[in-house]
Amino acid sequence: MLRKLEEERQVSAFWAKIWMIPVMLIALAAAKFMHSRGETAAMVGMIFVGLIFSAFVYRHFISKVAKDFKEQVLPILLEDVDPSLSYIVDNGIELDEFNEAGLFQHPDRFTGKDLITGNIGQVEVQFSLVHAQEKRVETTTDSDGSTTTQTTYETLFSGLFFIADFNKHFAGRTLVKQKKFDLFNKLFGSPVLLEDPEFNNMFTVYATDQVEARYIMTPSLMEKFKILHSKVGSFQACFSHGRLLMAIEMPQDFFEPLMSKSLTDSVQLQKIVFNLRLITGIVEDLGLNVRIWGAKTGS
User: I need a labelling partner for 245 at 20 to 30 A (CA). Which of 165, 171, 272, 285 fits?
Assistant: First the structure.
């Protein structure tokens, strides 16, 4: 299977390079013309456009092989990590689930892919890569009174969205935001100051119920959050309706091999398995599989 995919990758890469040659020649010719006119900025711009378009051409040719790899190989790797989990390449976390967390403004454009669902022990989980964008409309008026409207999309979040059952019962909502992301949630309420100064320097906690927030964010869980941050990098979390929802900054090719290298290279497979274990390991890292608490009401 891998050998066949590698042959497809080599053929696709060959044709991509064939198409990239005229693209770069045109860009370089245009850049040379700009240079002859003394337009240095335009010259640099043409070279940059040529590089960007060449990368787009390469990605276009190679994308089918990347998808075939994920459809054929990733389920096998996932079964080795945890056979109870399932993978769907074109599905992702739903927009409603993303919005429920309240970690970001509601996006105007939203996509998801690489959905993994199932149970890790007794904990139901689902996670996928998502890309959420906000629409920005800018209108300018020139000296003649003519108006021009430009619409752009800015990224709110790009990474992995993780949802899991939580092992405590609670009625409200608690947000754990990294300092650089907490401006939006100043509208959510007053921050909850917890007993761990190091944690407070890394995160800001907002909650509908401050007592409940302390019930959830125990010293043990705060320590686990700090350790998890050292493993996965930047993330933020929401506790809502008996679940933990997390947004973890990750590249969109997190579960893909490097298409510039051989698909038969064992290091490629080991990296993907490592990434899968990194995410599925969140259940154990945060102690979500330890069912020692009942409902807050004592049930």
Answer: 272
| Beta pairing, strands 203-207 & 235-240 | unpaired
Q: Which two tokens stand for residue 3?
A: 């050998």
- Would you say 48 and 108 are in contact if contact means Cβ atoms under 8 Å apart? no
The tokens for 208 are 């509908």
Q: Are 172 and 212 in contact (CB under 8 A)?
A: yes
CA distance 294 to 194: 23
Q: What is the pLDDT along the chain (299 residues), one digit of tens a residue?
A: 777 877 777 666 666 667 667 767 777 777 777 777 777 777 777 677 767 766 666 666 667 888 888 999 999 999 999 999 999 999 999 999 999 999 999 999 999 999 999 999 999 999 999 999 999 988 888 777 788 888 999 999 999 999 999 988 888 899 999 876 555 555 566 788 899 999 999 999 999 899 999 999 999 999 999 999 999 999 999 999 999 999 999 999 999 988 888 888 899 999 999 999 999 999 999 999 876 544 444 43
Torsion, Cα 55 61 66 68, to 10 degrees, reads 170
3-state secondary structure of 233: coil
Enumerate the domain spans of the chain: 1-72, 84-285
User: Model's pTM, two decimal places?
Assistant: 0.81
Q: How far apart are the first and last CA of the chain?
A: 52
- 217 phi, psi to nearest 5 deg: -85, 75
Enumerate the H helices of 37-73 as residue ranges. 40-72
